[in-house]
Amino acid sequence: MKQLSDLFEDVQHAPAVLVRVLQAQGSVPRDTGTWMAVFATHQVGTIGGGHLEHQAIAQARALLHSPSLPLPEAQRVALGPSLGQCCGGVLELGFERISAADAPRLMAGLASAGRPLALFGGGHVGQALVKLLADLPFHLHWIDSRDEVFPPDTPRHVRCEHSAPVQAAVADLTPGSVVLIMSFSHAEDLEVLAHCLRRARELNDLPFIGLIGSATKWASFRHRLAAKGFCDADFARVTCPIGLPGIGGKSPAEIAVAVAAQLLLGGS
After folding, report:
1. pLDDT at residue 153 greater than cutoff 70
2. What is the CATH number of the domain that holds 258?
3. Burial of residue 267, with CB atoms counted within 10 A of its CB: 0-12 exposed, 13-18 middle, 19 or more buried
4. Residues 188, 189, 190, 193: is their CA dihedral positive or negative?
5. Which DSSP symbol is given to 201?
6. Which residues does residue 116 pair with via DSSP β-bridges, in sequence order?
7. What CA–CA distance (Å, rounded) separates 35 from 94?
8. 3-class DSSP state for residue 174?
9. Does 166 score more than 80 pLDDT?
């Protein structure tokens, strides 16, 4: 998803042709919704490489060099011997000319294809996660009570929100959001978690609520949440510690890899 920021920047200076996978059947290198933007001298994104991509780039550059050339109809491409690829599946490709005027629409439309993810906390692990998740199929909403915490090089498609108190942002999360809680203080973590659990009780629309920390932290939080009226059914919604088991290391980058792997496996 980081390519969205690259696309936004590059299309401000030069036109491109957007190539999208409109449909995908069988064994194919990329799924429906995958895209690449072809410029005169480079490309952003990929539809899977190989002869398929090589031919699509050539066709897109021909459209760039001849603006009067009509756009082709959606193209059905079989990944067989004629392409030198033995995947065996079928793709349908669409081509669209784009320019700077299309950038806002593209940012909104292409980013919406990602899974919504709300990250509470702009510390070291949060920053490592954003760097990693920005390239993965997630639509990131990054929240912190400190408005100076977000790095200036944060990818443009990441939505950054200063919320004080930070837990106030829970009410406006996109339905279906994955939630990761890792603020700079345990007090903030507890309040965000309590608000997430109340929302989950009412709406049941937060499929994954992950809390950074140890088993000891979670035991303490369970005790404090019980005093607020929460019960075992609420606690079962929470994953703590977060991160795919078996991936060791405690550096921010290692934790980020473990968490991303867990989310890509569906969150469990």
Report:
1. yes
2. 3.40.50.720
3. middle
4. positive
5. H
6. 139
7. 9
8. coil
9. yes
Statement to judge: residues 121 and 35 lie in one domain: no
Cβ distance 209 to 200 under 8 Å?
Answer: yes
**Token output for 118:** 């709300």
Cβ atoms of 156 and 8 closer than 8 Å: yes
Please give the Cα distance from 214 to 56 (Å, whole number). Answer: 49
Residues 6 or more apart whose CB falls under 8 angstroms from that of 42 comprise: 10
Write out the residue range of the structural domain in which residue 175 sits: 114-264
CB 200 within 8 A of CB 230: no
Do residues 196 and 206 lie in contact, with contact meaning Cβ atoms separated by under 8 Å?
yes
Of the pLDDT bands very low, low, confident and very high (cuts 50, 70, 90), residue 257 is very high
pLDDT digits (tens, 9 = 90+) for 205-233: 999 999 999 999 999 999 999 999 999 99
Q: Which two tokens stand for residue 15?
A: 């036109």
Q: Nearest Cα to 143, choosing from 162, 170, 123, 167?
A: 162
Hey, CA dihedral for 63, 64, 70, 76, is it positive or negative? positive
Domain stop point among 109, 127, 154: 109
User: What tens digit of pLDDT does each residue of 110-130 get?
Assistant: 765 678 999 999 999 999 999
